[in-house]
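User: Please predict the structure of the protein below. I'd like the answer in structure-token form so I can feed it into my own downstream comparison script.

Assistant: Understood. Taking the following sequence of 248 residues as input:
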Amino acid sequence: MPLRTALSTLILTAGLALSAGDVRAQSADALVPEGCSAILTVQYKQCGVSLFWRCDGAPKGTTWEAFFDAEGLYSISLTDPGYQWIDLQSFADGSRETLQDAPADRIDIRALLETGSDSYAFAMRELSDAGSRTIRYAGHDALTDETRVIDGETLRVLEFDIRSESESGQEIYRGEGIQFVLEDERLFLTGVETYHQDGDSLTDDYSPVEIIRPGASGFGATTPIYECGEILSGVTPDPADPDRTGRA
């Protein structure tokens, strides 16, 4: 599809070029490629921090997100202007997912903001040490009437549900909860989420604590600072399980 073709060079610059060496120790300066600019840093509960950036050579609204946990760089995701997942790379386990062509129903944050609701259904191709497989995702987002002010930023609250399954239809995991939308940047931020996998369920609060714009103290940070003592002591589960961003 055209977006994948237009972004192929940038994907390699922002993602695959990090495959050698100790990628989990990447800094913001080393991570954001030339011709790209960081736009936001978000410190989350559960010992996580995200760095978002955009690039001059990509369609307006195309966004990269690098997520860092207590051990360093966990993942990089690429989403198109509608927030459809394009490329998801995990540096914790070496797996990578790429969008298969012609999604049945793309994620569209623009439709969500215009109508209050958005459904999606698409397939990603995963490559990992275990081999390759197709993962199918389907879900629904719905804005509520609620807004929350976090660190001076007004966020829209949405309710979501998501299901992933194998090509044969076997469920991999499902989840539901609330997330947030930073409307001016058209970004999804995580919230209180419950995931079910292999008969087990886990609910955690991954809500933002600090939302940091360019020029503010803490912008560009790649070290999480909230609730990390609990994570490292083993009191709180890994925030990246099963899909840390819920979307990327």
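That's the full token string. Confidence is low (pLDDT under 50) at residues 1-17, 235-248.
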